[in-house]
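The records we work with from here on pair a chain with its fold. The integers have meaning only within a learned vocabulary of local backbone shapes. A complete example follows; check for yourself that the lines match position by position.

:::
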Amino acid sequence: MMGIAEKQKAKFERVTPHYQVTVHPQTNRLYHIELSKESIAKFLDTISQKDFSVQHLEYTPYARFLTASCILDQVGEEFGGLLRDILHDRGTGGFTLGLEGVTEDTDEYVIFSTAISHLIGSPNYDAMSGKYYARFTVKDTDNSDSYLRQAYRLFTLHTDGTFVDEPTDWLLMMKMVEQNARGGESRLLHLDDWKEQDKYIHHPLANHKFLYKAPGSKNVSQEIERTTFFNYYNKPGMCFIDQFVYPENIEQANYLYELSNSMENDKSLLEFELPVGDLVVINNIFWVHGRAAFEKDPKLNRELLRQRGRFNS
């Protein structure tokens, strides 16, 4: 018998001459969108003809929206609305999408991800990279000041944008390079699947404004106060990351610790593989995400791209 989430998701499934949308094979909370190879090749050819290089996109903000227009020229004007509808829908709020092996050029990965992100909304400035996107590697050794690049430990579940004073409605992650990687699966949990959600959203500290501060590598000096839970279209939204939140006492620390452990041990937590050249986009308000630990390998090399931002009006 089809469950509630499956019924909600079925409304977005479709097949067109240029793409098809199906329920993700690993979870009924996500969609997988497969573009035709012909449409991808024509998109990349158009980008090349227009000389929309990565540098051009970095220097010329309006060109980023023009790459989004180039996608629509190939697959149809309704495609952007479809992506936004999926992300806004509480029953799903996420999808995967890739380049189907048409290219292995990482510059074209950046351009493709830019087109997708600008169909969704506007990416925020990423202070870590000084651009509208960030690329970062995970290798055998690491001297950073956060868990983002530390390969051999669990990167715990969290939302993005906790320590910046701007909306962070959605998150896009794309796998650029992967060599000698075992483990390191993407980890996701939809808030509505979290068994102990009620326990923590009705706790006296659920609406307490916690202080968030970023480490030096993030290049963000401001300090932000945020509640852990908030109302989002009459459903709970969440803002949390264990690394950057500063409680004021033992009671607050216990609440944050137990909340994090509850999510980490929830049976609905999803771990899934993302192929090189594929991206995943989730609604950052009601999905939390993280990464499993890698197995030890001196030659480990994974590179990811990140964009995160707001929905446009």
Summary: The CA atoms of residues 204 and 255 lie 10 Å apart. The chain is about 30% helix and 30% strand. The two ends are 37 Å apart (CA to CA).
